[in-house]
Amino acid sequence: MRLLHHHRRPPRHPSFRTRAPGPLIRRAKIAATRHLRNAWQFGQLCYNRFMDPKVRYCYEARARVLKALAHPSRLFMIDQLREHERCVCELQQLVGADLSTVSKHLTILRSAGLVLDEKRGAKVFYRLRIPCLTGFLDCMAAVMKSTAETQLESLEMP
């Protein structure tokens, strides 16, 4: 009986190419890479050329706010701050994560301009910077409800 050694590679299939690819394959790979790079540069050129820099900055700022909201824990914290301001320790208990994780999430929300912090003694309290954010969350809930109703209607038999 032959013992298998873990340090040895399994035998290769006979059709497996052991040589380096030929010049035609190399040229095709280089051309494909060049094509992708040119397409990306063209997209960047169109993005930069046709959009006014002030408008682009405005949309990039909006994207940063949406990215800050794009985490379940941060959305939950925003929802909890809707009622009243809370201490970091309260938010930690509500979220159920480490203090460092909750602090990192709050830092992201603060840098996006969504929450304000206030230090009182050894504790830091957070509150919503703009109360209309709760309207945005309600709008998201309405979109989700509408989408779910549409999907449910499409599953019903005629």
Description:
The protein has helices at residues 23-50, 53-69, 72-81, 88-95, 99-111, 133-155, and strands at residues 86-87, 115-120, 123-128. By secondary structure, it is mainly α. The longest helix is centred in the N-terminal third of the chain and has 28 residues, at 23-50.
Which tags fit this structure?
158 residues, mainly alpha, Arc Repressor Mutant, subunit A, 2 domains, three-stranded antiparallel sheet, 6 helices, 63% helix, 9% strand
CATH architecture verdict of the largest domain: Orthogonal Bundle
Strand order of the largest sheet: 1-3-2
Termini Cα gap: 66 Å
- CA-based gyration radius: 27 Å
Shape call: extended
Q: Quickly count the helices.
A: 6
Largest sheet: 3 strands, antiparallel
The unreliable regions are: none
**Given the helix and strand composition, which structural class is it?**
mainly alpha
Helix content: 55-70%
Name of the CATH class of the largest domain: Mainly Alpha
The total beta strand count reads 3
Topology-level CATH name of the largest domain: Arc Repressor Mutant, subunit A
Provide the domain count.
2
* Helix-strand pattern: HHHEHHEEH
Strand-residue fraction? 5-15%
